[in-house]
From TrEMBL:
This is CLUMA_CG020996, isoform A. It comes from Clunio marinus. Keywords: Prenyltransferase, Repeat, Transferase. The keyword Nucleotidyltransferase does not apply. Belongs to the protein prenyltransferase subunit alpha family. It comes from the Eukaryota. PROSITE patterns: PFTA. InterPro entries: Prenyl_trans_a (IPR002088).
């Protein structure tokens, strides 16, 4: 059969590849998805289908067409001949099997020689990801393509949307979440939107570790850039948390009281309010997440993902609280060799909050975190 394909059916393979190439040239900007259609035997005149901007190729011809395209590409590469006409074979081979780095490297070569259009390459790699949303090579390629564009001209929200689609199609899609974090490094202004988006995803995909890891990344980055929502100063989660076990007279119910409770040694006049607002915003989110996890446990039972996420966000909260035992974090803003920790009597309330956080953990996790805190 292979000899038949190699010697007598090249015309057929060329016809299929040319038809696929024609569709991509005429409709690539409109084609939204690509799929291999499971048809074990030849049924139609053409194995290429385009229905309502959804492109497909029948499975019965995949083996022959891919083998033909693969051998032709490798042959050209060995001869150091990479004409623009090789693109149609690359398109076919990559759509069928996007995990061959050599194919993508040839595309890079052609892009560098301006034989491929950047916009069309973004469209093509997006099409590849519609079939294989976990394709690391496609994500690597997109990051490489962005090196040819200025940051001001890039709509990073579109890239986030692509990551969302890939994550929804395949659970545990590490490559999509990793690419999403790369985007957020480039566009930190999108970090705040991730709070709502990741919560929705977690509630629908409770056992997907990748999203929990991503949300922890988002929380950490928000603190790094000292972000807080100027339109939302709701700290109800913190108030409820610190008021547990307090008498009515001792309960904290305003910002001044909260600052005095958490940082009794610091005068409010000396506090860097941007850092304070960022710190309180993040702690409020962390406590919200702890409550969300408890809610999910009640609904779905215990999952290892819940336990792991609680451990990492409590660790994050503890690092922040430890940071705030150094007075010049909230006043000067950076550490020096002369920075002195607060006296034991001054961190009494911090220790109370620490104990409350540690009580949220199982005993083994509690001991694990105490070792590093």
């Amino acid at each position: 059969m292979e000899a038949f394909i190699m010697n007598e059916d090249k015309v057929f393979c060329e016809r299929v590849i040319n038809e696929l190439d024609k569709v991509l040239k005429n409709s690539q900007s409109l084609v939204q998805t690509f799929e291999v259609i499971q048809v074990p035997f030849k049924q139609n005149k053409s194995p290429i289908r385009l229905v309502h901007n959804h492109l497909g190729i029948e499975s019965w011809c995949i083996r022959y067409v891919y083998q033909y395209a693969h051998q032709l590409i490798i042959s050209h590469r060995k001869q150091n001949r990479l004409p623009a006409s090789i693109v149609k074979y690359l398109n076919c081979a990559i759509l069928i099997n996007p995990d061959v780095a050599t194919f993508w490297n040839i595309r890079r070569y052609l892009v560098e020689r301006v034989q491929l259009n950047l916009t069309q390459e973004f469209q093509f790699s997006s099409l590849v990801l519609s079939k294989k949303p976990k394709s690391s090579e496609a994500f690597f390629y997109r990051r490489w393509l962005y090196s040819f564009q200025s940051g001001e001209a890039i709509d990073w929200a579109v890239e986030i949307s692509l990551c969302e689609r890939c994550s929804e199609r395949k659970n545990g899609n590490y490559h999509a979440w990793n690419h999403r974090q790369w985007v957020l490094q480039k566009a930190p202004n999108l970090l705040s939107y991730e709070i709502i988006k990741t919560e929705k995803f977690i509630r629908k995909n409770i056992a997907d570790y990748s999203c929990y890891h991503h949300r922890h990344f988002v929380l950490s980055k928000l603190f790094d850039i000292q972000y807080y929502d100027v339109h939302d100063n709701n700290l109800n989660e913190i108030y409820r948390f610190v008021n547990v076990g307090l008498s009515d007279e001792a309960k904290v119910n305003n910002l001044e009281g909260l600052i005095a409770y958490l940082f009794p040694n610091i005068s409010i006049e000396t506090i860097n309010m941007t850092k304070l607002n960022s710190l309180l915003y993040l702690l409020n989110l962390i406590i919200y997440d702890l409550n969300m996890i408890e809610e999910l446990i009640l609904m779905h039972g215990k999952y290892e993902a819940f336990k792991s996420y609680k451990r990492v966000i409590i660790s994050l909260a503890l690092r922040i609280i430890k940071l705030c035992t150094y007075t010049d974090y909230l006043t000067i803003g950076h550490f020096t060799n002369t920075t002195k920790p607060l006296e034991n009597t001054e961190i009494k309330t911090q220790n109370t909050v620490i104990e409350q956080l540690l009580n949220q953990l199982d005993s083994d996790d509690n001991n694990y975190i105490k070792i590093f805190f």
